[in-house]
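Obj.: predict assembly geometry.
Materials: sequence records (below).
Method: joint structure prediction, all chains together.
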Amino acid sequence: MSALRWTCNLSRMWTEWTPWDRPQLPRGRKWIDKGPRGAGLMSCVTVTNMAEHNMTQSGEKFYNEILSPSELFAAQSRSHKLPVRGQKDFYPNDSEEQRQRLEQSLEEHWSLISEERVERLGNLVKATWIPSEKIVELQTPAGKFWQTMGFSARGKQYLHPEEALHLMECGSVQVFYQDLPLSIQDGYERFLSSSTVSLLQYQVFAHLKRLGYVVHRFDPSSEPSSYARQLNLPQSCNKERRQLKRKRSASPTPSTKSTSQAETQKESTADIMEEEKCSHEEDESKKLPDSDLKTCSETSDTQTGPADSGGGRTWWMADISGDQSEHQPASGSPRWHFSSISFPDLGSSERHPSCLFPPDPSLLPGSLAVGVCDITPWRSRINLRQVKMSAKEQKREMDRGRRRWDINRDKEVRRCRNWAEYHKLQARREGRRKGQPEHLWNREVTPLHDPSQPIPTAELLETISVSKSSNLLEGASRVKASDQWRIRFNVYQPDTVADFKKTNPGRPYCRMCVCSFSDPVPDLRAIKQMAVQSGDIQVICAVVDYGDISFYAFKDFQLPTDVYP
Amino acid sequence: MQAEFRAPRRRTRVYEEYEAPLPVSRDAEEKSHFRAEFINQHVLVHHPDHIHKIHNQGYFGKGILSRARPDHSISDQWEQHEGLMLPVVTQSRYEELLSWAGSVLYAQGLDEDAVNQTLLGLSQPVDVEDVRREMEGGENGQRREKEVKEEEPGTEGGVCPQTKRPLDESKVEPETKRCNRSESQDLNPVCDLSPSSDQESDSNHDPTSDSDSDSDCDPDPLVPGPGFVLVSDGEEVREVRRCPLTLTEYLQLSLEEAFFLVYSLGCLSVYLNQEPLSILQLWQTFRSLRPDFISSYAAYQHFRSKGWVPKTGGGAKYGVDLMLYRKGPPFYHASYSVVIERVDDEFRGSGLRPFSWCSLAALNRITSNVSKELMFCYIIYPANLSEVELDSPACLSKLKVQEVIVSRWVSSRERAEQDNI
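Observations (raw structure tokens):
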């Protein structure tokens, strides 16, 4: 006679094995489990070998895994419903009725927990535990769970230890080690360790699996690095994708870096030079000589000594900005001989032609076309020196001024006892006239905005924004990854399970970090570490409090500017 | 990953009109410069025009006698009586006010007879015509008050430690007669209560009604200005009397708000003992008052520069440092509760407020119960900031601000279905 063999799984009690940890059986709803068969209350009828059974019935009851028909029937016909929780009592009132109710509910819970699970032997997938590699190898073909769990290697099917343990708890897989089946306790002891998955992480894993999510281990190397993200590589498993073409920029890479560096410098001359470099795509014929002149006029102001030395000046002044070496074209052109390039010195008092001829095109970057420049208006603005007047001339000037008005006629001026007070009076008057109080505007630190010069609100907000905004990825590469805040799992939504492909899972819904409730809250450093590992997928911290799990997400945010006119 | 921006929730009933985002003029005609006093580690604004502008344009500060905007009035109920709009107080309340006035007069050193006479005079019923006449001759009324005040020499001086400022009174214009009384109260910035008129009154008589010092002027009907109330004794009887005392309300600015107005907008001057403080002095004073002033000010300025209205004082209500409003509290519910944290260059926190998961969970629950989002604002200090640099507001440009939204994710499937991927 054919006998379907039945076996029954022991469910031992653990301290953290609460009734609510069982595979959740939603009441009144058919359990559409796309993964492993969740309910431990499987039952089927079978007929076992009576002879076998009778032998062991006598005497001591050996623990026999195979069920007798009566046991099987009992297992099948036991109630599938979870006990209904009644009304809560808020305080003990020492009544018999309350005591009885409490006892009954405790009994129900106890019987639930001590329930033995019954599984069809033929439905159990057999597997073996390989401790050296910390994986579980399937001996019989996998069931429905294979769609979302497990991996293939060397022609065989394998499961990760946490997956195996979860399937054991669900009653879908029986794991053997040295030809003996492992119990759940064995599973917890052996499969969970610091080198595989810790207990906390397993609790999170199991919690999410029971809710139907697809949870995979996180592999940091499968994520594109920040550099790859910068290049905007399309993220796919296929490594043979060609790189997207980078946008062509005329300046070579080192100088674009120096562009960004130089822009942050406060030196205006550096800015002007950078403008030259960045705007080479347009015809900047007017701009270039202007910046030339500005540069040279500033240099002439700062160096009045060598101003008269004349030509032979190099193009780039060493005292203007520190990192001059980056401004030199690095794309392989030969080093320029600066001593032979004569830079026009407009600041000196020598006579100059009234216009500048265009410079040698080989000195200019890119395809810049520079025309002739008229320098007379510029020369009139530089080198303004005080006119040296003889004593007679000065006296004449003073008389001319005095005829206008005698300052000593002013009462307030007369009240000033010394020059300091007079200066203060002047400052006050000036402030009052301009609407700028002296105590605000005449000191070292002045207000950011002058209320007497009204500007539209958007600009005002711009003026006020002194501190820079930062985002999570900024500076995050400096932060070394720590073990505590490593991302553990990728989590995919349950409704994607139907067409889930392990080889191409797509973007996860989120990534999980696991920590304990008594651990510290992640500070900005930890948040950045998580963000850098994850990229643009949100990271959720799972906080485990002895079986209770809460999830917190720390997301980057930039408050939008709200301009209400 | 970026947090989603959720649009702020508008309040169902909005009673106010939006004037301006910030108390600086957008056109060249008005020139506004405000004045505040730094008294006893608080910044107070006295001048009612300044109070009005500073509060209504940007929602800075809080009235010291009110919950939010300085709208304290002697009574919540106002009624029209023979063409005048007057606040209504009950008899018992009026008597209470009289007794307060009496105690103030006692404190000024008057003997009992003088006090009783004053109160008696105060509580005489006032004819409506007198009220109107007083309104029209606002200046006269003011002068009358001045004379009346001079009847009691040394009373004002005794009460307020600061000297009288006759300049203020002479500056009072007739068209601002409604604000007259509060101008005169500027003489005593320290004491809140000040007897408005020193007429004597008898507490036996019906308390005189004085209109309110707070000048909420309605264009019509006429508001007689401070000093008159309508006293009711529970039924229909209404009598116009003088108010025995007037409560002036000042606007209190928090340290960050005051510094923002001074430094970022340049429209406020803070005076300490009649001397205006420069920006650097103000910065150093505030820093000495509060050790983490730089962080909280950097966050405040950051949010203001985004056009949002941050209100301090969220600590007592929601357990956080700032509440962010769009446009202002009267228009929208607060959208974000902000906790300010300070981190160094390595993004390590120095624990201004060390969190545990327990307290974070609690704060998160509170915040979501009031339908707000919890935001952490990290102020990142660069490594090379010296103490000297920190002593000047110029260091603000070196700081960076990072905002992080903390939210709780519910793993149960119903929630996940609602969440869009």
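Conclusions so far: The longest strand of chain B covers residues 400-409.
To do: check interface contacts against the pulldown list.
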